[in-house]
Design goal:
With about 200 residues, the protein is of the alpha+beta class. It folds into 2 domains: about 1-60, no CATH class; about 65-195. It has helices at about 65-90, 110-130, 135-155, 170-195, and strands at about 1-10, 15-20, 25-30, 50, 55.
Length: about 200
């Protein structure tokens, strides 16, 4: 078997899965879950394994699982903002200057607050809500924070028309897309939780 085995716990069951050389998905229920091995041997191929009217779908484990995807999108936003900021510092390595016009040597309070709020505090709070929040109201708070971040990123793209560096043309729109995807995921999650009530 090529690649790492990934483990995910679903109550009493533990699923081991991976990929073989021909790219087929392989998975099995492990014996410690008191479940007999698949009929064809240790591993079986296909989309689901059924036991006692429960269907465990392989695709819910990672990218089709909003519980995995939403925290990942929050982290991607934080990383994107960090890269965005570090790109502004690139001229220093080429003998250039990053000093703003009319700079006095002191960082304006509004800039420090804005940077710390939108590059770390707000996304980190959203990340905490997505990891530890179990109720629909937690998802709604995360959605409100994500909407704020999406609005910030969309408005922040105005900087592209005010002489931002060429690298920002790749980073800033991508950050905006990630923020919008986050809003969509959170919206869909709260909608599905509402149906489940």
């Amino acid at each position: 078997m090529i690649g790492k085995k990934l483990l995910a716990s679903f109550g009493e069951k533990i699923i081991t899965f991976g990929y073989c050389a021909d790219g087929k998905k392989l998975f099995s229920l492990r014996p410690n879950a008191n479940v007999p091995p698949a009929a064809s041997g240790k591993f079986s191929t296909g989309e689901d394994i059924c036991r006692e009217k429960q269907v465990v779908k392989l695709n819910i484990l990672l990218m089709n699982n909003s519980n995995f995807r939403i925290p990942l999108l929050w982290i991607m936003l934080m990383v994107g903002l960090t890269i965005h900021t570090s790109m502004d510092l690139l001229p220093l390595f080429c003998g250039g200057s990053v000093v703003m016009e009319n700079a006095t040597g002191e960082v304006p309070a509004w800039m420090a607050i804005l940077m710390s709020t939108f590059t770390y505090t707000v996304p980190f709070i959203g990340l905490l809500f997505s990891i530890y929040g179990k109720k629909r109201c937690d998802v709604i708070v995360g959605l409100a924070i994500a909407c704020l971040m999406a609005l910030f990123h969309i408005l922040h793209m105005a900087e592209l028309f005010m002489g931002a560096g060429m690298a920002q043309f790749f980073i800033m729109p991508l950050n905006a897309v990630i923020a919008v995807l986050l809003v969509i995921d959170l919206w869909n999650k709260q909608k599905s939780m509402k149906k489940g009530e």
